[in-house]
Structures are given as C-alpha cells and as structure tokens.
What we know:
Layout: H1 6-45, H2 49-65, E1 68-77, E2 82-88, E3 95-99, E4 104-110, E5 112-114, H3 116-123, E6 132-135, E7 140-146, E8 150-158, E9 163-170, E10 205-211, H4 228-244, E11 249-253, H5 263-272, E12 277-284, E13 294-299, H6 305-315, H7 326-334, H8 339-357, E14 365-371, E15 383-390, H9 394-400, H10 403-423
Parallel strand pairs: 1-5, 10-11, 10-12, 12-15, 13-14
Antiparallel strand pairs: 1-2, 2-9, 3-4, 4-7, 6-7, 8-9, 13-15
Helix pairs in contact: 4-10, 8-10
Amino acid sequence: MRILTGQGTISLSLAVIFFSATFLASTIAAPIQTVWAATIGDRDKRPRESTKRTNPRVKATAASLAPVTVHDFRVTASPERTRLVLDLDRDTTVMERRAKNPSRVVIALPNASLSRSALAKAANGTVPPPFMVTHTATRAVVVSFPTAAFRSYKHFTLSNPPRLVVDVTPRVERGLAPTSETQEPLPIPSPPAIQPTAPPDKGYKTIVIDPGHGGRDTGARGRRFTEEKDITLNVGLKLRELLRKQPGVRVLMTRESDVFVELEERAKFANSNAADLFVSIHVNSHPSRSVKGIEIYHFGEAKDQRALEVAARENGTPLNSTGVGWEYLVADLLTAKKTEASLELAWTAKEAMITHMNGHYAVNDHGVKTAPFYVLRFTSMPSILAEIAYISNPAEEDLLRKPTFIRHVAQSLFQGVQSFLANSKSTIR
C-alpha cells in the first residue's frame, strides 16, 4: 500500500524499521546467547597457559634483577661433619664447580651479596676452616674449601626460611680419633703452587715489576708514533734501578727487553718467585685527546664504563666479554685475601705519584679504581696496575718521550712502594 503524503510515508517507514528490528532481534538472540555461552564454556575449559606464561615474566623482572642477600651464616662442627648454613632472603640458584691450582670446591650464589654484618664476619677471618666465604667482584657470594680437607661433602637448599647448607665430612688422621663433639675440623693444608709461600726467614722482599705489552704487542700508540711498550719498559728499568739500591729487596722483571710475554705467564712468574708485590706499568689512552692524568688500578669489578674500557684494551679482549665468566669469579676468590693490601698499595702509590709529580708537572688525579685486568687476576700477592699518563694527549705524549719525565715517574712509584713496605705492620705474604 502506498501512502502519498510525506507524513504518512515517514510513519510507515518507521513502522517497517521497528518491525524489522524486532524480528531480527528475536531471530538472532538465541544463537548469540548460545555462541556466547559456548565461548564462556570453552574459555573455562581451556588450559590457562597464557596466564602462566605472562606471570613469570612479570615476577622475574623484579626478582632476577635484585641480588639475593645473605643475611647471616654460621658454622657448627661435630666428629661426623662440619656444617655451614647461609641464611638467604629468598630461594635462588646454586652453582658448583671444581677449581684447580689450588684444588678447591667452589659453590656460588650468582647475583648475590652479603649483608653488612655477614660481610664483616667474612672479612674479619673468623670463619672456621675448612670454609672460606667471599663476596666477589663478580656479584656473587662464594663458599669454597680445599679438596684435601674432606672425605666427602654435599650441599642442598632449604625453604621456610630459605637457606643454603654445605656439609663437609673431614678426613681423620691415622691413629687419632675424635674425642668430643666440639673438636675442630682439620686445618687447611699448605697452599699449593699458585700461592707459593716464601721461607719465613728469607730476610728480603721480592718485588716483581711488569712493563706492560712488548714485542708484537705494542700497546697504545700516540700521534707521534710513541708506543706504550717502549715507555713502560723504560719506566720499569728505571724503577728496578732505584729499588735495587734498597737493602732487603730483590727485584725481578717480567721482561727486560722488547719481547712478548703472555699476560697469564706474568702472573705465574710472580707466583713462582714468591713475590711480595707486583707492579704492572701501563700508559693510558682515551678517544678525547684533552684527557690526561694518572690512575691506579687493582683487581676487581669495574665500577664505571671507562674502567671497563681500560681493562678491555689492556686485556686485548672485547668489551662485552671483559670481566665476565666463571673464571673471573674463581680468580676473584683466589685474590680475595689480597684485595685489602692491593687497595692500600694502590692508594699509597697514587698519593706518592701525585705528591712527587705535582712539584714538576700539572697532574690530573683520576684516583684509585678497580677493573678486571687479566694480568692481575691470578697474582697471589698485593698487585696494582699503574696508568702513568695518557699517550693520546699530545702534551703528555711529549712528556713520555723525555727521559726526565720517565725518571720522575719511576721515582714516584719507588716512593709509593717504599712507603707501603715501611707502613706494613705484618709480613705481606
């Protein structure tokens, strides 16, 4: 039926639309409800894998970045075993390795730290044998003990509260039997070859001077083609000359000429000669030619990007692989007892250089720093690496070419070593 008036046409159209909408709604309402209900049902029956995949990522971000804290540790002894317990703030991963030279069991908690009280306990030497607890420069807490000190051992973790437990069954000497539950475990045997012990009555101090680079390894190079290997050798020879005049001092050098010596061999040389001090001499370099001055390093974790770059250059290793890996953790463990003495030697040498050199030159003091230098990592005595100037700076390159400057550098290092030896209250080794 046709309605000719505009008013009537509009009314009819609205009626048709309303009727169509009502019909469609009634027609499809049931299928939609059926599909929706089925969807909900399927969703309820479907394994909730997405939730499980998502939540660990969220949780791991906070948990994995924050280091685990060792609040405290304690040792109990009985005739059957010696037990070490570390109290943790949460569960964590435990790694175990065997280290050679010296032969030790190394149990590590990566990305972990000691609390202030636990660190003090570990540092003051009160940890009973055979254990050594160390907070390493590679951000790990390490428990180690020599393989010769036990018959068997095991370690395991506990929860509520989180703990790491290390049990060591000590060896029993022939003819001796434990007499009480409080009997102390057997002492640690004499240190192996990597930490040779000099005779107590030797009557002299052995100082090893290590001129950096040499032979095919030229080191850093200045714009006037001055090479680091030549500068370090000149300073080393002059320093040896000064130290040899001192009574009770034996001076050795890792190289006396322009020859190539592997970094690891330099440390072995110092260890095999029962050295009391190790002084490695280097020349610095920087992309900015305006940077100049001196800085002294000892082995440890790099505290800033620049220190890591210096270590990578001197090590001859890529930046992204400098100072990482299990071998550095073990190396840091081996040198842990010498860290304090190395820091003292570094500060003494730096202060002597600033005091002596400032009378002749305008010296920029970049301070004492830590970095994972390969040449220092296995030395078993107080060890430092001295960056005496920046060969990349035109003014300091000119100075490095002058015998007078070389003599002043050697004299300042000599005064630092002499001051350290004089202030040492006990035998260094």
